[in-house]
Specification:
It is a single chain. α4 crosses α8, α5 packs across α11 and α7 crosses α8. The chain is built from 14 helices and ten strands. The strands form three sheets. A four-stranded mixed sheet has the order 1-10-6-4. It has a four-stranded mixed sheet with strand order 5-9-8-7. Helices cover about 40% and strands about 15% of the residues.
Length: about 280
């Protein structure tokens, strides 16, 4: 994988929009999906994996019981793919990872946690369009028929009715990206999409490093740049108030916005206290 460490705001913007020019369209239309992470040392372990134990078997039980106990009318389309998207959106452990089409939204999630301002952040950039050209034939045919670069839940339902059947489409593991339905303004404003592996036991970063490292770029953001990035994102209106519409998002934005820059992240304070 290509790792690029930026030194300032200008270099960061250049790297975020690197390779965004499309010769076929003669437009700046990026083929990349972005994921911002506040700690560059983090990997792409899913929330399902973090459960531990036999999480592969646990997946179907989680989703089945989520569907059973969810309030009536929670989803308009009762397909398993739609339920999976709703479950991820509301915090159920799944094999999905959150991504966005917007590099600035990714920057928000890389810089929103003030407690990690003593650590470098990272933005993952994955060429999902090129990755989809490597999918099993049945999935590629659906994309070609729809003349689309990515999937919707309806398109995935055409390929398989259950997520467990996804593994049957190929002998080896594969990755895909799909857009969640517009469940609320949060998904819309975050310009969201999800990634998933064909197997719940497979990890996207390991898969990419092993087989498709040329389709990934990782932008490393030094901790010292976080406050500048955060202030400029706020001025560009990329904030919790916009990305999490409602009173909860408003409160999150105000709490962070009015936190003095002099306040040391607790993680750093603890390390310093051990030295004295």
């Amino acid at each position: 994988m290509e790792d690029v460490r930026v030194n300032n705001w200008v270099e960061l913007n250049v790297q975020l929009y690197e390779k965004s020019w499309s010769d076929s369209l003669q437009r700046f239309r990026s083929d990349y999906a972005y994921r911002g992470m506040p700690d560059a040392a983090e990997d792409l372990t899913t929330t399902l994996m973090r459960l531990g134990g036999n999480y592969r078997e646990m997946e179907r039980h989680l989703l089945r019981n989520f569907r059973k106990y969810a309030y009536q009318g929670a989803v308009a389309d009762t397909s398993e793919w739609n339920w999976l998207a709703v479950a991820q959106h509301h915090g159920l452990p799944t094999r999905l990872l959150d991504w966005t089409y917007s590099p600035y939204v990714a920057l928000h999630f890389a810089t929103e946690n003030l407690e990690l301002y003593d650590r470098d952040a990272m933005v993952w950039c994955v060429n999902y369009v090129a990755l989809h050209k490597l999918l099993p034939r049945k999935l590629r045919e659906i994309l070609n028929r729809e003349r689309s670069n990515g999937f919707t839940v309806e398109m995935l339902t055409q390929a398989t009715h259950t997520i467990r059947d996804l593994e049957k489409l190929a002998r080896t593991e594969f990755a895909l990206f799909f857009e969640p339905p517009s469940l609320d303004s949060r998904i819309v404003n975050q310009y969201a999409l999800f990634s998933m592996m064909s197997s719940p036991a497979a990890r996207l970063d390991e898969y990419l490093a092993r087989r498709h490292s040329d389709l990934v770029r990782r932008i490393i953001i030094p901790a010292k740049l976080k406050w500048e990035i955060r202030d400029k994102l706020d001025q560009a209106n990329i904030t919790e108030r916009v990305l999490f519409p409602g009173l909860d998002g408003l409160a999150r934005w105000l709490r962070r916005h009015y936190t003095p820059t002099q306040i040391m992240p607790p993680t750093k304070a603890k390390r310093l206290s051990r030295k004295h």
